[in-house]
Design a protein that fits this description.
The chain is mostly helical. 53% of the residues lie in helices and 0% in strands. Helix 2 packs across helix 6 (102-135), helix 3 packs across helix 6 (102-135) and helix 11 runs antiparallel to helix 12.
């Protein structure tokens, strides 16, 4: 073996930093940033352009750092909040972005995109067949039956999927309405929310928040993606940890509800390929319209109640109640002693300064 070969072999055996990126043209599927990208796409923002997100975020931290917040549009402020969520999710990312060049930003964006799009593709494929189990009434069959691996007969072409996709406020049982939806005479846009978002698939026009985003179908899909497919039936059998546990997720995020709703909606349609720019399914507008209402200050009370409801469905141990510590317990005494030490430290510090 030549010296060059030995040297090369030694370099390969050296430990590699966990967040050190490899060559741009050969990103590894196992790279930590791909891992982060998968979870970020599911729980923070599913359809963002990482290249633009990183580039604009760096500008905000650099050249535009002194620009008053009110000078930015609402969309720019939302974008920056998402960028900050990304920085919090990945240790050392801010330093790499500020010290690295354009090539480094390109590589990071590529890996995050790879993770987010990979997770979305996996979930789309997995839900395509499973959703049929959840929409089939117990003890019955879908008539006519629907194929698990093909979607051509779904959407408004089928009685069951058509009823679930029918926009709230329209009557699927009305023959004229059904015919117009099937023919495309009635065009359904992404901000016309379907009936399957509602508990028991019932929409109350006088109280449109009643049951919204609380359907059993959404809960099934959420568990399927985040806890494990077997947890849908409340009998966990998975040999691997679900996505929530892998990523240390102990409570839902509002964007994750929007993500699952978007995935379920697509699985019910007849469209074969998920595309953010598909004007037929209008998935991007649908997803963003849900995010909009979740972020609307006027809807805060309803949204907060919704988050509590979801946490109780997905994480049974979740509780919003702050239970007081039992007096004289070991934990209570530890907290009490710590408070006394802190108070004494502040008092001594104040005396010293005086």
């Amino acid at each position: 073996m030549t010296e060059d070969q030995q040297s090369c072999g030694q370099r390969r055996k050296q430990p590699v930093d966990a967040l050190q990126l490899g060559p741009r043209k050969r990103p590894s599927a196992a790279d930590p940033l791909v891992h982060y990208g998968r979870h970020f796409g599911r729980t923070v923002h599913a359809l963002c352009n990482f290249q633009a997100l990183l580039t604009n975020g760096i500008l905000r931290m650099g050249e535009l750092a002194e620009t008053p917040e009110e000078n930015f549009t609402a969309e720019e402020r939302r974008e920056h909040r998402i960028f900050q969520e990304l920085l919090k999710s990945v240790a050392g990312l801010e330093e790499r972005l500020m010290q690295g060049g354009d090539d480094e930003v390109d590589v990071i964006a590529e890996l995050l995109t790879k993770g987010a799009s990979g997770a979305r593709g996996d979930d789309t494929k997995s839900l395509k067949g499973s959703v049929l189990d959840w929409i089939t009434p117990k003890g019955q069959n879908l008539v006519p039956p629907l194929a698990r691996n093909m979607k051509i007969d779904r959407g408004f072409h089928h009685e069951r999927t058509g009823a679930l996709l029918c926009p709230a406020g329209l009557d699927w049982s009305h023959s004229e309405t059904k015919a117009k939806l099937q023919s495309g005479e009635i065009i359904v846009t992404g901000d016309q929310w379907p009936l399957f978002l509602y508990a028991d698939y019932h929409y109350d026009s006088e109280d449109p928040w009643n049951g919204l985003f609380r359907s059993a179908l959404l809960v099934c899909a959420y568990k399927h993606v985040f806890t494990s497919p077997s947890s849908v039936d409340r009998e966990p059998k998975a040999t691997r940890s679900g996505n929530a546990r892998i990523h240390g997720m102990t409570r839902i995020t509002l964007p994750s509800i929007a993500y699952i709703a978007t995935q379920v909606r697509f699985s019910l349609t007849s469209s074969p390929v998920f595309s953010r720019t598909d004007t037929v399914t209008d998935s991007e507008r649908f997803y963003n319209s849900i995010l909009d209402i979740f972020e609307d200050p006027d809807e805060k009370q309803e949204v907060d109640d919704l988050a509590v409801w979801w946490n109780r469905q997905i994480f049974p141990s979740y509780s919003t109640a702050q239970r007081p510590l039992v007096k004289n317990s070991a934990l209570a005494r530890i907290r009490e002693k710590r408070a006394q030490i802190k108070e004494a430290s502040v008092t001594d510090g104040g005396s010293g300064n005086a």
